[in-house]
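Dear support,

I submitted the protein below through the web form. The confirmation email said the job was done, but the results page showed an empty box. After a refresh the structure appeared. I'm attaching both so you can tell me whether what I see now is the final result or a partial one.
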Amino acid sequence: MSGPGGPGPGGGKLDINRAGVAELEGALSGIGRRRARGIVRKREELKGFNSLDDLLHVKGITTRILELNSQRMTCRRRPSSEEAARVLAEEEEDVSAPWEPERSGKGSPGSGPEADGSPEQGAQESVSSRAHGEQQEEEEEEEEEEGSCYSEEGEDGSDVYFYYTIGERWIDYLQRTEEGGLLRHVRPKMKRKSENGLDGRALSPGKKLCKGSEYSRTLGACMPSPTTTFGDLRNAKPGQARRRRIPSVAPPPELQDWLRTFQRWSGPEKLLALDELIDRCEPSQIKYMMQVIEPQFQRDFISLLPKELALYVLSFLEPRDLLRAAQTCRYWRVLAEDNLLWREKCREEGIEEPLNLRKRRLLSPGFMYSPWKFAFMRQHKIDMNWRSGELKAPKVLKGHDDHVITCLQFCGNRIVSGSDDNTLKVWSAVTGECVQTLVGHTGGVWSSQMRDSIVISGSTDRTLKVWNADTGECVHTLYGHTSTVRCMHLHGNRVVSGSRDATLRLWDIETGQCLHVLMGHVAAVRCVQYDGHKVVSGAYDYTVKVWDPESESCTHTLQGHTNRVYSLQFDGTHIVSGSLDTSIRVWDVESGNCLHTLMGHQSLTSGMELRDNILVSGNADSTVKIWDIKTGQCLQTLQGPSKHQSAVTCLQFSSKFVVTSSDDGTVKLWDLKTGEFVRNLVALESGGSGGVVWRIRASNTKLVCAVGSRNGTEETKLLVLDFDVDLK
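What the results page shows now:
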């Protein structure tokens, strides 16, 4: 690079070679040998830079830095030898003076005369003696780390100029900014104490020389500090304009002078000025500032985190919020499609299986969709169909003439209905066809159980029968009871039956053998539960009994009810019994103690369901209550203007909904958590004039209702409502 008349910012190579060092040494002949030796020590660092690749020889410069800045780099001329000599001569005159960091805002070494004509300050203390050479070099290294750092930018903010001076420790080192992107200079400079005794840095980090200053005019463009300014943040964002422009407003002529004045102030002075300025702004101007400032401090911290941590953070979001997050950007969508993340969301909702779509045409090519997310989305759509979807015309299954449907089972796509016409019928829930009629009982069928293709029925003819639902064949007829078989419960290959003869019997349905007889009740057994280990029975003798079927012994007799026990629930730990005395009692199966007495109903509790310590009870008083059996607290009462107008006959509940049926001819849907009425799923035209819904059974996607009447106003039939979604 040439001398003082060399190329400017537009080009020119920085060429600081050995010849230049010799020239400089000649110009500095008046300076002591100590300083000359200092220059020699630095000689090996004063290399010529003929290309950007040569910068890789400078400590701290990497290929990545050059890639990031290759479009923004040009060179500035170096100072002439006379300039460097003058600076060092002044430094030599003051070599004995104590040196302190230069005060902020007072200029910079090498910048020439100030605007007010004051002399230029010295640059930095040199090595004072050979004896202290090593110590001084260490101090110099520390001073380099603590020195002011700044880059030189062009007027348009697009170019970075590498300005090198030659003098003892007047060598610029290139480093990365704290953000790791832009190049900057580390130029340590020191200044002796001023005459008034105050000292400070010439340019401390975070400060920026204003345009038009003497330093700027001497060296070229303004040189912002390495601390990123707000303007740098705005300009660094891709696709964003350099600054907001106020349309149709010309800049005031005093604007640049005002900005220069602001730039010369110290940090606290700037804050004070800003505080005063804000107080004088109108609300609309403050709003404008907020619109400019707030977006710059928004950070996509999710994209900055390791994937594992990002997924952990997202795991705390609700599924609805995850779906919204997926619309933020492509990377967020990739995270929001994580299969394990959606598996946990599905398990929280009770979804146990992922959904794998065979028709891949639905999926975008090259993008991995989560099968668990599909399962969750499908369930969400099903829930919405239950809650607010269009109620399509139900399938109508007719077959028991005008008889009462006394029991109803629904599993998979198979429906089994039992009637007092002595038969059971097997229906397809998909087509609505009656695929089998199970004939063999000589009395009305009053109880039934089903597992896969096996159906067990109990009748007033005092027998149980085991049927193959696929073929309609009666596999076994179980004899032993001496009165109507009123209730039963199937677990595995064993079924326990309760009869009006006050006994219970345990049967093996594969062999047809009676394994055990449980005797102890003194009145008809009305309800029974069996978990494979213990049998729990409720009877018209006002008691609940806990049995060990293997020893045929009664381990507990639970006394407390003052009327017949009509309903039971048993989860292996707690027994819940409902009675005609209007109360519901919660018992501990191991100790036999009554834990809670649930009061609130006004009549017979005809049906109950228990799941995860949540009990839902239906009563003849036309209300439904939701209880927490751990605390004995009534969480919700399903009533209000839309409540049932007659006795509740049956109920089912899931994690979100409660479905109830009544003698008033309706089937109602309620929200489990809030207790709010959602809508009527079935409303018979004959409701209130004889039409009733006797039984209901529900799966995730279907609802089966057994309806009819006792006075001929409603034909006996099954209604099948479908809430499934079409994924085609």
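Response: this is the final, complete result; the empty box was a page-load delay. Confidence is low (pLDDT under 50) at residues 1-50, 71-79, 94-225, 359-363.
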